[in-house]
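Many groups now describe folds with learned vocabularies. In that spirit, our science desk offers one protein's residues alongside their backbone shape tokens.
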Amino acid sequence: MSLKTTAAKIFAKVIHNKTQRWVGNPIETQQKVFRNLLASANKTQFGKDHNFIEIKSFDDFAKQVPIRDYEELRPYVDRVVKGEADILWKGKPIYFAKTSGTTSGAKYIPLTKESMPFHIEAARNAILGYIHETGKTDFVDGKMIFLQGSPVLEEKNGIKLGRLSGIVAHFVPKYLQKNRMPSWETNCIEDWETKVDAIVEETFNENMTVISGIPSWVQMYFEKLEQKGNKPVGDIFKNFNLFIYGGVNYEPYRAKFENLIGRKVDSIELFPASEGFFAYQDSQAEKGMLLLLNSGIFYEFVKSDEFFTENPRRYTIGEVELNTNYVLIISTNAGLWAYNIGDTVQFTSLKPYRVIVSGRIKHYISAFGEHVIGKEVEHALKEAMENTNIRVNEFTVAPQIAPDSGLPYHEWFIEFENEAENLEEFALKIDNAMRKQNVYYDDLIVGKVLKTLVISKVSKNGFQEYMKSIGKLGGQNKIPRLSNDRKIADLLQRKK
């Protein structure tokens, strides 16, 4: 056992014990975060406009501070971007995480000296938690790769900006610098396909033990490795045993990954975003990710089926229930207040509080009142593939409201690795799995409002070509699982 692995075990135990202290006092922890946030921002412009100094309780806060998305908070953000101080949070941000919004154009999410450390610590603690639980430490002596955006940063009114993953690259601890890949020069390559090719060349002969990134883009890396080596990734990297991922559900990719790797490997799921690092998988045995209640973020939850009603009820951590779909609302030490990030979650455990990401509040299908969410389509596909050799690279679903003939239906655009011998039979399996989960969808099928879903095959690399055509290939970009319109579907239709 090396000095580094011994130190990792000791550090993992220290962090585990520290985590358990707030895990054991969740409500008190959130109340403390809530009070600290208000006290820190009561002299900001936002705090003055919303009378923070008079807020004594969550009920007061809910009355004073309405739920907002980026566009609604934008008048304040624009002032921060212009360089004004003390607007949403005390002082100025140290970075802007630049993201591409679907309705807002470029979005500038502030990162402050108070919020930035939590982005780094959460990722570190996820790995340390894995070490503490499993006792596995050999991977810390090998090479680790984090597929991420370019660390090259721009500057806007004296504040540096870039992709969150690129910003985080500047904070890699010194003790990991020698283990970290790819090289800085390769990481700075902007074109994603060129970058992945360079990463393959750099890593092919290395002792890779940890690989991390969004599954769809790691898949591209694995495919190129397999092509170069003419053997499974697990044979190229014999000591690769830990995959760390976030951004999308891994389950639709798991069978494909195990085929590419040639064996099963442990995995850790993360729930990071530009707006904050919300949760990470703290157990290999339990479902869900530990919600980080002590990370400078105060959480609220609104039931998804009530979200678009007038004045929906806002729940705090002590009021949530298992297996209910909630829209996640956050207030943070980066100056986001009652902010709707667009993600929906479900609690899988209340002791401790663990969540899964169930979808996006804007990514759903309810063209006929069916209220289908991302978790449902992912589960249905997984169930239909069980005990088969069918493999799916990528998929998305859209409504077909006005077909040339017959009843309308849900159209599933699927890029297969191994195709089903009988597509209609496979579609029926998915459809039955959907009907078991969603009573509204079942009623529409039974009532002959909809017909059984239809699968439209997408050609090999069709989704990559689509993402490239809209300028979103690689990095943190991902295909929406669901759309309530045909914008994506119509473009994919041309690439079939």
